[in-house]
Specification:
With about 110 residues, the chain is mainly alpha-helical. It is built from 4 helices and no strands.
């Protein structure tokens, strides 16, 4: 499908406007000097753990628990993430450490 330069420009401007709207709208709706509505505060508190749970389920959904290596690399990586997070409390360190361990296990140990 071929787009004219005007169509291309319109698409770029629409995407840019949509991106800017989603970036600035929360600051306009909920200024710093006002408390956000209770529903928004609840979402801010509940969504991060819910998303982490969703990611864990998604990452472990295709693990072959009854075939060799019986999910050992995945289980060890999850354990590493939990321990790193309990030790340092840093989400990025936990995720990076668990990912690095998982990659090492599947590429060098459980080949």
């Amino acid at each position: 499908m071929y787009l004219t330069p005007l169509q291309t420009l319109c698409i770029i401007l629409a995407v840019a406007a949509g991106t800017q709207l989603t970036r600035w709208l929360p600051f306009l709706l909920f200024p710093e000097n006002r408390e956000p509505p209770l529903a928004v505060a609840d979402l801010g508190r509940l969504l991060p753990p819910a998303m982490m749970g969703l990611l864990v389920v998604y990452c472990l959904k295709d693990v072959a628990w009854f075939a060799s290596p019986h999910g050992a690399p995945e289980a060890l990586a999850v354990l590493a993430v939990v321990l790193l997070h309990l030790w340092r409390g840093n989400v990025l360190l936990s995720i990076a450490g668990g990912t690095a361990l998982y990659m090492l296990l599947v590429q060098a140990v459980f080949v």
